[in-house]
Amino acid sequence: MHERPHHRTVAAQVFVVPAGDPERYFAELRSAGVDMVIVRAFHLEGDRPHQGLPLEHSSGAYFATRHVPLVADRLPDYARAAHHAGLRCLAWMTTRKTPMPALGLTHREVAWDPALGRAASRPTLDLFDPLVVNELADVYRDLARTGVDGVLFQDDLALGRLEGFSPSAASAWLRRTGHALDPTTFWTVADPRESRLVDRPEFQDFARFKRDRVLSVAMRLVAAAREKSPEFECALNLYYETATDPVHGLAWFSQELSAAASTDARWLAIMAYHRQVKSELELDDAALASTLRAMGERLRAVDGGSGRVLVKLQTIDWTDRSPVPVAELHDVARAFEGLSIALAPADDPVRVREIVRALREHAGVTPGPP
Hints:
Blueprint: E1 10-14, H1 22-32, E2 36-40, E3 42-43, E4 60-61, H2 75-84, E5 88-93, E6 108-113, E7 118-125, H3 130-145, E8 150-153, H4 167-177, E9 187-191, E10 196-199, H5 202-226, E11 233-239, H6 241-244, H7 246-253, H8 257-261, E12 267-271, H9 274-281, H10 285-303, E13 309-314, H11 326-334, E14 340-344, H12 349-362
Parallel strand pairs: 1-2, 1-14, 2-5, 5-8, 8-11, 11-12, 12-13, 13-14
Antiparallel strand pairs: 3-4, 6-7, 9-10
């Protein structure tokens, strides 16, 4: 494990770089009080393009790589502008959802479908497939060539509860356990009419098997990037359940906070999106506050004062895109005092300045040097 600097980061996760001069934009973000930017390096159909650019393809990447369509070669410019402003710059990049046309409809994820009683292909890439991982490693080598300091993995670097049944996964399971991969050993059907499944104890072994593969792929991609940029770092994007409900975090996403912490990842980025937490868990305000406090305690224990845990705060409402009031963000951030913070999204420097000022003055946020 390499030595990590001990300071708290305040990051801006940039969903869309606005039109205009990138040099000025990143300088304004630095002046607003952040010391790291996380810039979207992928474009999926329906995403808003950076700077309102006309794009060459409907999906692809903002950097040149032979495996993924180039939508606009702008990431190297953004990295240079961020560095000129004194900011660390991470790319925010996909894995399983990466558009890789040469792979066609093969090499795809396979999931168990309880309604059909059989496995079925899904559109995402298969993390157990060696060809997929090798080609993703090439993509991440090219990503490192852009000059970014590292990557925040998109939240597609996870495996769902019913996923992990491709032929490549079955071969890996056989090598690990000596047994055939049989979905019927992992669940019982609680209600055939609803195809509702109940996990058997054997499912925990399968969930850990998938967890290990997700982390192994992440570290493989970072190692590939370090062939071109030896100081390349990564942030693992973790669902909030890893901190609120570890059993379900492992079952639903094949993610586990303790396992992630045992890797060489520089940051553990927790998607602590409070309005999403409140909605999905059907919490009132008091229960939400209690849940966030418990999350903060668990995360501080993992962080140990290193600044490694990066708590991602939701700055807009996901349903209507309206801004979350600064006072509300301040109240949420108090639960995570002493931890690194990322604002998501943080596209507007004026609003970022307002939020960071409030957090610094009232919620214990103090950035260190970039």
